[in-house]
Structures are given as structure tokens and as C-alpha cells.
Amino acid sequence: MKRIQNRFNNLAAMAKQIESSRRIKTEQRTGGESWIRGQQPRTYTSTSYNMDWKGYRQWSASVELLLNQVFGENSPHVINFNKTNLNHEYQDFEVRYPVFLAAKDDYENGYIFDVRSLVSAKVFSDELEQAEELIKKKHTTAAAVIAGTVLETTIRELAQQHGVDLGSVNKMNSDLAKEGVYNDAMKDQVQAWYKIRNNAAHGKPDEFTDSQVEVMIQGIRNFVADQMK
């Protein structure tokens, strides 16, 4: 979380510098068909733009990457940031800068993560119901794999929310505990659940029991409800 906030702040400072470098220059010029049939030269206004172009391109690429990582490539912020197709980068900046500020504000106030968490929690609940149905029909291995997938996805979501580097489930789990997202007891429980998932996925049904998977499903349900809120 701290690293993401620092990145937003750095890009906001960069945007201020780009904004202060912008200049519009207008001048009166003459030209065109100025000597046809004795007409006077036509006068027109020429407008030119100046800005820290290199800085803008760097800022734009960095913001796009950050928004994708934080909100997801299909989020409104990413879509709005990328849909500018104006004739000049000067105008692009005028459109993209407010989108960046809105995204920064939503991140700092937790709005986007609240929405994503609600959606994720609903999806995970449906998948855990499937796992419960499978365990009732004695399809224990399949139930363990589905529940384990929910667990893995939840850990990945939490890592993204709290600025933890993505990696293996065990590594993210340890890092989340270090960040204080949950305590060491929960870290050990997550590791135990994921061990059952791995045994199920690798065809080792003798390494776990039906009752262990039942407890695992309920435990993961409680974990999702507690963390994705």
C-alpha cells in the first residue's frame, strides 16, 4: 500500500511539472492566395504548443502501468485514460490528467477496492457452494481444488490491494502476514489449506480426508468474508 501511494504521489508531482511546462503561442501570419486578382494578403492566426514532451510520454506510460496494476485493465479509469485520441499530446494531457487525479482519489479513499472486494466475495461464495456440493457427493478431490483456487485468488487480490509483490501463494501469504494484514496464526492456516489444495491437484487423495476438506471450505469462506470486505 505504501509503495503504491508513493508512486501515485510521485506521478502527481511529475504531472505538476509537466503542467507548468505547457505553453501556447499564437501569432498573426499572412499567406495563402495573397496575390490573386490584386487581393490583399490573407491574415490568419497560427497556434503552436510547447510542453515537456519527453516527460509527458514517460508520465503517461507510467500512469497507464500503475492504473492497470491497481484497478485492472478493464476498469473505468484505465479505459478513460486510454481512450484519448486527440490530434496533439498537449490536448491528451488535458484529458488524461483529470482521469489520473480521479483514480488517485479513488485509490486513497478505498472506493475501487471496496467494489472489487464485494464482487470478488460474491463470486468466491458461489464457487465455495460448488465445492460444498461436490463434497456432499464425495468428490473430495475436486472440492479441495476448487476451494484452493478460491484461496489462491483471494491471496492474490489481497497482495494487490496491500502492495505486496505477486509470486507464489506461500510467499505472498508470508508477506501479507509481515504487512500485518492478518496474524501468524492465520498465515499458518492458509499454508495448511494450500497444502491440501496442492495434494488434491497432484493426485494425492491419501494426504487428506473428507472432514479436513469440509473444514477447509468453511474456513476459506470465513477468511474471504473477513478479508474481502
Description:
There is one protein chain. With 229 residues, the chain is mostly helical. It has 9 helices and 2 strands, in the order αββαααααααα. Strands 1-2 form a two-stranded antiparallel sheet. It comes from Bremerella alba. This is DUF4145 domain-containing protein. Pfam families: DUF4145 (PF13643).
Query: Tally the helices: what do you get?
Result: 9
Order of helices and strands: HEEHHHHHHHH
At the first level of CATH, the class of the largest domain is Mainly Alpha
Tell me the total number of β-strands: 2
Physical arrangement of strands within the biggest beta sheet: 1-2
Distance between the termini: 17 Å
User: Roughly what percent helix?
Assistant: over 70%
CATH-defined fold name of the largest domain? Four Helix Bundle (Hemerythrin (Met), subunit A)
Contiguous runs where pLDDT drops below 50 for at least 5 residues: none
Instruction: Give the tally of structural domains.
Output: 2
How is the biggest beta sheet arranged? 2 strands, antiparallel
InterPro entries: DUF4145
Protein name: DUF4145 domain-containing protein
Pfam families: DUF4145
Domain DUF4145: 131-217
